[in-house]
Amino acid sequence: MKTIKLYEHKKILVLGLAKSGVSAAALLHRLGAFVTVNDSKPLSENPEARSLLEQGIKVVCGSHPIELMDEGFELVVKNPGIPYHNPMIERAAELGIPVVTEVELAYQISEAPFIAITGTNGKTTTTTLVFEMFTAGGKLPLIAGNIGMVASGVAQEAVPENNIVIELSSFQLMGVSTFKPKIAIITNLYEAHLDYHGTRTDYHQAKARITENQGDGDYLIANADQEEVLEIAKVSNAETVPFSVNSELSRGACVRNGWVCFNGEQIIPTAEIALPGSHNLENILSAVAASKLSGVSNEAIISVLTTFTGVKHRLQYVAEVEGRKFYNDSKATNILATQKALSAFSQPVLLLAGGLDRGNGFDELVSSMKGVKVLVTFGETAEKIELAGKAAGIKTILRADNVEKAVPEAFRYSAPGDVILLSPACASWDQYKTFEVRGDMFIQAVHMLN
């Protein structure tokens, strides 16, 4: 890692722990900063905070005392999940204290270039595809961000020969100031996280920060099928490399005559790609573009695309039980993701959906549910999704207490040849700590059917 003096003898507050906060606090301490950590969880229930305390780091736990902000901090490193209307963050703004996320720290110390991926949907799949293609091509990638390890931890171990492939959320990107990836990818942009950002415009502006510091010699891989992505590309100083599922391009990545192509060169027939779902072509094209720009061979790209079948919790094939195929798409935490999952199947689908109520309706899901044979709902949004199911003409609509109970209920109404799909269209936090936990509960329930 780079040895930087930027934070030496500076008073810095790390707000919120979890993995990113722990990593940021330890890194800043190593860089010579005077670090204070503040977390809402009491010290007695907070092993991470106790570990930092043992390292000589000041820890304030159990609440977020606003008066803490008057201790002369020169920087706040916040957990990405803490919104900017949090009183502590608002007080930092009043005092003129910069607020960043640990991704900014990772960039500042990294000896390796970053390949950064953001977007509303497809981030995890695209990040994994890029990582696998770079691995197959001998590019020595390290994976970081929302997938894999915390960025500031990975950056401490990276050497110049590595490439840090990082998935970034809008929450993380709002907290960068100098972050400058060698290659940035914007998979797509839709409406999401309005409970955090407030407006669609603010959400898209947060995503645009992935490219704001790019310049000559950098690349922005942009979805040419979306005007909102192209608007970001117009103001970027990077070289724009487009990709399109719908149009043939002479430059960039596209599908032409049944082949995935880059700059007019045929790479692989789409029929040979192992990853299911037409929506995954966006992810594949952007990953191919990043790989080709980085000198990965066609042979390495082909070896990945003919074997890679998906990321856990993202349209993940789980098992076949008595002729029924089960798919775990727990990472589908919004309507669009569920629409794309449903479009991947021509077979009859039994859909398991529901979760945290963010105040939205599900009318947009109606047209995508025409092929759904049975709908099983759960969680806070059960009733709203049932209304959408009725509007779609689904005759069998059931309600379960949770995902674990929804699985055997769906199986009871299924037949050989059916697909039983968990694609909730909602966040998990009403019943499960994370979408990963929800997906794991689904997998466990499926295996209990045998």
UniProtKB/TrEMBL annotation:
- Catalyzed chemical reaction(s): UDP-N-acetyl-alpha-D-muramoyl-L-alanine + D-glutamate + ATP = UDP-N-acetyl-alpha-D-muramoyl-L-alanyl-D-glutamate + ADP + phosphate + H(+)
Q: What class of enzyme is it?
A: ligase
Coarsely, its chief localization is: cytoplasm
Record keyword Nucleotide-binding present: yes
Show the Pfam families listed in the entry.
Mur_ligase_C, Mur_ligase_M, MurD-like_N
Enzyme Commission number(s): 6.3.2.9
The protein's annotated pathway? Cell wall biogenesis; peptidoglycan biosynthesis
Q: Where does ATP bind?
A: G119, T120, N121, G122, K123, T124, T125
The protein's name is UDP-N-acetylmuramoylalanine--D-glutamate ligase
Q: What species does this protein belong to?
A: Mesobacillus zeae
